[in-house]
Amino acid sequence: MDTTAPARLADRIPEVDAGRMAASLVPPRQFTRAGLDNYRPDPDYPSQQAAVDAVRAFTADWTSPPGGFFRRGPKPPERPGLYLDGGFGVGKTHLLAALWRQAPGRKYFGTFIEYTALVGALGYAEAVRLLTGSTLLAIDEFELDDPGDTMLMSRLLGELVATGTRIGATSNTPPNALGEGRFAASDFLREIQGLSDRFTTARIEGLDYRRRALEGHARVAEPAELDALPRASDVTVDDFDALIAHLATVHPARYVGLVEGVDTVGIRDVHELPGQAEALRFVAFVDRLYDDQVRIVATGLPLDQVFGAEMLAGGYRKKYLRAMSRLVAMTAPEGPVE
Ligand SMILES: Nc1ncnc2c1ncn2[C@@H]1O[C@H](COP(=O)(O)OP(=O)(O)OP(=O)(O)O)[C@@H](O)[C@H]1O
Ligand SMILES: [Mg+2]
């Protein structure tokens, strides 16, 4: 038996590099093949076909061949933004990646957190300079967690839209309800309304695609499975408590670097998270693992039960539910659903 200690995430201290952050603004690996043609709308939920139609309409002037001398091509969409709103695993990110693929020229794809982190790393003016002139900014998981985000996004999107960039966004929250239950959103109605007015909204109903094939709970491994994981640089094993403590010392914008190149994450002795700060950091971590389609092998409490009842009743409920759905997928023995 190999007696060397396994690699630990808790020993990794990722660097941020603004250039690399900008270069990574493309759809995550899992969505490289996501297109409109391989999105299969569920006939029980007509809003799924409607969302595909909305993406086609939004991109029609990009995708149709140039009009002849007498014939004009399709007009650009009425509003500069398309907002895909819906539950977990209904294919919002898939459709956003498909939309991104249709855009000509320079274009970006990132999560809301990645854009706010980019602004944090480059400064506002430099970030605007970088993004200006792009055809499309695709923003996955649009959320307004605090007044700072709200002011930042309302200003940033305003400037970009004014110079011709279109915005695609996904969220679990309709645009006019952003921020609700999280901060005094009513003090920012003007900004939230302003953001919301830029978008046409397509609401996508449906079942969690990931759960179509999976059982209800995150799988719990035997301790022996953790011990048997190969000692390799792309396999890590951490105690849950040490991992949670480490996440507090790394900015969530750097979690991308924390999990870079990791294929399997082992977690020992999972238990309920103590509070909201830990829970929100854990959600951001889970999102990065999911983007990289990492497999999780965990012992203790099933990972989809780490959020307590009180947390699930609060303003971040949807975030937690999404993380739970992703954790079920990543702990499945056959790995996440492709
Ligand atoms: N109708 C569909 N046809 C084909 N594949 C789908 C469909 N819906 C979802 N998928 C696939 O299921 C997986 C989950 O979808 P996706 O991540 O796009 O959902 P989501 O709505 O963004 O979920 P989340 O709320 O977790 O962000 C992806 O691999 C995606 O390609
Ligand atoms: Mg998504």
Give a short summary of the structure.
By secondary structure, the protein is an alpha/beta fold.
Please give the structural blueprint.
Layout lengths: L17 H6 L22 H18 L17 E6 L5 H11 L4 E5 H11 L1 H8 L4 E5 L6 H16 L3 E6 L17 H9 L1 E6 L4 H4 L10 H5 L7 E5 H8 L7 H4 L5 E7 L5 H16 L3 E6 L8 H4 L4 H15 L7
Parallel strand pairs: 1-4, 1-5, 2-3, 3-4, 6-7, 7-8
Helix pairs in contact: 2-3, 4-5, 6-7, 12-14
Bound molecules: adenosine-5'-triphosphate (ATP) and magnesium ion.
Structural commentary:
It is built from 14 helices and 8 strands. Helix 12 (276-291) crosses helix 14 (317-331). With 338 residues, the chain is α/β, with parallel strands linked by helices. The protein is globular and about 75 Å long. It starts with 17 loop residues before the first helix and ends in a 7-residue tail after the last helix. Helix 6 (147-162) links the parallel strand 3 (136-140) and strand 4 (166-171). The strands form 2 sheets. Strands 2-3-4-1-5 form a 5-stranded parallel beta sheet, with helices on both faces. The chain has a 3-stranded parallel beta sheet with strand order 6-7-8. The mean pLDDT is 90. The chain has helices at residues 18-23, 46-63, 92-102, 112-122, 124-131, 147-162, 189-197, 209-212, 223-227, 240-247, 255-258, 276-291, 309-312, 317-331; strands spanning 81-86, 107-111, 136-140, 166-171, 199-204, 235-239, 264-270, 295-300. The chain is 40% helix and 14% strand. The structure holds adenosine-5'-triphosphate and magnesium ion. Magnesium ion is lined by residues 92-93, 140, 170.
